[in-house]
Design goal:
The protein is built from 2 helices and 4 strands, in the order E-E-H-E-E-H. It is of the alpha+beta class. Helix 1 crosses helix 2. The longest helix is centred in the last third of the chain and has 27 residues. It is flat, with a radius of gyration of 23 Å.
Amino acid sequence: MASSNLPDRQSLYVLQDGERGLEIIEDTKIPNAATFRVYKQDHTLANLLRAQLLEDKTVIFAGYKVPHPLEPYFLLKVQTNGTVAPSDAVKGACAAIINTVVNLQKRFEDQFRDKEFDLGGVEPTTAQPYYSDAYADF
């Protein structure tokens, strides 16, 4: 097996003991702004946070970048209008995302609780394997 310079996959998303997941860097040049360095995450969380922050009327700017694809972190830049601190805006966005996911899970469970699934009139124990004659010539 050839060796590779790729990092261990688990080290890309699992925080080790004592490792911090978030670093807040106050911006000294832009008022009411901060940069959040979020470790062991990627575009999935970054874009979700950015979109949720932009729904907040107190947020003037929210954007992110992933400096390098092999480095497991992203930078989230947030600027508010001054009525709310950038860290409080991020906390609110996280709470709103968690609330959305909990509601989605509840709706999913409610929708599929005690449902009978139609298997085409065939009992699951006697179901025939799917066969397609699309490749019968081979």
